[in-house]
Amino acid sequence: MKKVLVVCGNGLGSSMIVEMNAKSILKDLGKEAEVSHTDLTTAKTEQADLYIGSEDIVGNLEDGKKNIVMLRNIMDKKELREALENNL
Q1: DSSP H helical segments within 30-73, as ranges?
Q2: What is the distance between the alpha carbons of residues 7 and 15, in angstroms, rounded to a whole number?
């Protein structure tokens, strides 16, 4: 099963909301994935198939190996849906 990691600065508020939205969107798409949220520091050491977060946060994870989606507006469900459709 694919693993999606939603990342924000502290791993609390916004990443939890995006996690819930991602789970809902994946269900609508009929796709299965393990979705969780975390802070930036923890995300650097966690393995995932896809890292999602705001441009200013997840850009710090870029190492040439990780599959990273940088959202312009993390509350935009359409943008999140497109990211999940194109990367899972």
Answers
A1: 40-43, 55-58
A2: 6
Q: How far is CA 63 from the centre of its chain?
A: 16
Q: What are phi and psi of 65, to 5 degrees?
A: -115, -30
Residue 62: how many CA atoms within 13 Å on its side-chain side?
9
User: What confidence tens digit (pLDDT) does each residue in 70-84 have?
Assistant: 999 999 999 999 999
Residue 65, amino acid: K
- pTM across the whole model: 0.92
Q: 87 Cβ partners below 8 Å, 6+ apart?
A: 50, 67, 69
Share of the chain above pLDDT 70, in %: 100
